[in-house]
Design a protein that fits this description.
The structure is a homodimer. The first copy, chain A, is mainly α and about 220 residues long. Chain A is about 70% helix and about 5% strand. In chain A, helix 1 packs across helix 7 (about 155-175), helix 4 (about 80-105) runs parallel beside helix 8 and helix 5 (about 110-130) packs antiparallel against helix 8. Chain A binds a DNA duplex (30 and 30 nucleotides) through helix 3.
DNA sequence: CCTGTGAAGATTGTCAACAATCCGGAGATG
DNA sequence: CATCTCCGGATTGTTGACAATCTTCACAGG
């Protein structure tokens, strides 16, 4: 747009940034389970770097709240008890409501709603095929897209962390989708509310959706 | 509460954590102005530590979004243009609305509203005395208290960063309180809305307050 | 049996030195 | 005069080593 040939500035990434992403991924998919100690020497050897860059990556995760640091003891993947899970969903509601509200009032509301409809359709497809893994992926993709479309760097960055935590406790609790059709319907209603632009409905849909998801998780936690 | 003698776990802090706070303070009050390069060697010497812990602290600030990292070039205090300031206030609205909503629906709503009334009273006192510095402090204390009272660790952590950014651009723009009385009144209305528990009013009051604050900042930016 | 002592082992916290990269200017070349 | 090349200085990125701390276990004493 602004530059003559429309080039993006070259984007190279620091080592600690790469390691941060890799560790975050590991926490998300359960390869680094909640409560596990993160050994500096061991992980540094795995990544093939020295402890310096690895420690820097750790500090990022500490700041993000995914890792807890105990002085002279080590770093541990944060464990989520029920209160934490409730707080997680409270915060997700805050962020996603704001994102949806912003999107619904922006120029790209119609286009955004269309994108979200497509995501919901992908969920429906996965649900129909009985592929619960694909359904979960599509579910996350929907929420990721929702916040992305709002175009707010801060909301997006905060949401990233929250989604890691969400996925973390879903894998930990082995939560299964009980009513896939209901899930799809909830997401579709959110997309439609954005298309229509009714704030009140939008807020209610998101709030209910989060409440449902939270209830499922808490139930799974009590049973499992 | 839960433990027999009610002791808290001993809380010692890591060096990088201390340095992070000190740097954050420096960014907030303008001692490290926006766009400034943060020299590792220089700062390490000032703190009397080696570059290791200092770099760890830097990574935390990068993750927080207060500092921007350019590979092999250095670290720079993030600059806030108008779009960024708008995003900042959009996000503050999201977080503080959620906090106020949570507080208003909690058991401690009445007590919380009282605490906020006291904060607003402190603002009124500062405004009456014409002490704009004290007014700004009381203003921040009000918002800090509001989010603290919600009792959500995630909202609180996110809000912390946002307040640093807010203060950063206020000091950068030398924003002065134009209508101190109006300011106090806006805060009082928020406290009362929490006491009453009317969600709709609460949302509107916070949204308007943020919009007002944003407008003042943007105007100051265009003039200054 | 419970408590206190002490050393071994492992892990984290810190540091100073080395390697790689970038920026600026002097000088050569056309 | 413009451009290219090269070098010195400075800064960041990374490493391996050292110091401090914590945990675990065995063992002696009451």
């Amino acid at each position: 747009m602004s530059s003559p040939a429309g080039f993006q500035p070259v984007h190279r990434e620091s080592t600690s940034s790469l390691i941060t992403r890799a560790l975050r991924e590991g926490i998300m998919n359960g390869r680094l389970p909640a409560g596990a100690q993160l050994s500096e020497a061991g992980l540094a050897a795995e990544f093939g770097v020295s402890r310096g860059p690895l420690r820097e990556a750790m500090q990022r995760l500490v700041q993000e709240g995914l890792v807890r640091s105990e002085l002279n003891r080590g770093l541990f993947v944060k464990e989520l008890d029920e209160a934490e899970i409730r707080d997680l969903y409270l915060t997700r509601t805050a962020i996603e409501t704001a994102a949806a509200y912003t999107l619904a009032h922006s120029e790209g509301a119609a286009a955004g709603a269309q994108r979200l409809r497509e995501r919901a359709a992908a969920m429906a497809e996965a649900a129909a095929a009985g592929d619960l893994n694909a359904l979960a992926d599509a579910d996350f993709a929907f929420h990721e897209e929702l916040v992305s479309l709002a175009g707010s760097p801060r909301l997006h960055r905060m949401h990233e962390t929250l989604m890691v935590e969400t996925r973390m406790c879903m894998t930990a609790l082995q939560e299964t989708y009980f009513d896939p059709e209901d899930q799809v319907a909830e997401h579709s209603r959110i997309a439609e509310a954005i298309a229509v632009g009714d704030d009140e409905v939008l807020r209610r849909e998101i709030e209910e959706h989060m409440q449902e998801a939270l209830d499922r998780l808490v139930r799974a936690g009590h049973q499992g």
